[in-house]
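Hi everyone, sorry if this is the wrong subforum. Our group has a chain we'd like a structural model of before ordering constructs, and none of us has done structure prediction before. Sequence below.
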Amino acid sequence: MTIKLGDRIPPATVKRRINGTVEDISTGAFFAGRKVVLVGMPGAFTPTCSGRHLPGYVEQAAAIKAEGADAIAVLSVNDPYVMEAWGKDQGVGENIVMLADPAAEFTRALGLEVMMPPQGGLGLRGRRFALVADQGIVTHLAIEPVPGLDLSAAEKVIEAMKAARKR
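Answer:
Right subforum, don't worry. Here is the predicted structure as C-alpha cells:
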C-alpha cells in the first residue's frame, strides 16, 4: 500500500556512510521531532537524478530550510558507499543527508518500489517522489509518473511548503 497524506512514516532501517563508517538509521528516530523533506530518486549517478533532480535540491537547500525544514534527505535503492560518493560528486555537503536503502526495505514500506525496465540495468528501484513529514506525519506528498520529473522538483516542494504556511 502506497503511503499517503496523514500517514506516519513507516518503521525501517536505512544506512548512511559518514566519516568512514556505515551507520544504521532508524526512520522513527530520523523523523522524530522535526520537519524532514525526503526525496526519493531511482538511482545514484543516473542521468535525470544527477543532471537535474539532485542538483535542484543542492541549489535550493537554503530556501527549503528557510521554509521550515530541519533536514533534507535523499533516498535511493543503492548501497551507502555509492550514496556517499554520489553526495560528494554532487557537492551536497552538510545540507543533504544521503540515505541508502540497499534492500529496498524502507522503499517497500512506503509502497514506492518500482521494477525499472531491464534495458537500463537498474532492476528494483524506488519511484521518484518528494514528501514532507512533520513529526513523522506526511504533510505533503508528490509521486512522479514513470518516467517524470516535475512534481518532486525542489521548487515544487518550496511552493507546497509556502502554501502550507499560509493555511
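For your construct planning: The chain has a mean pLDDT of 92. The helical segments are 27-31, 47-66, 80-90, 105-110, 154-166.
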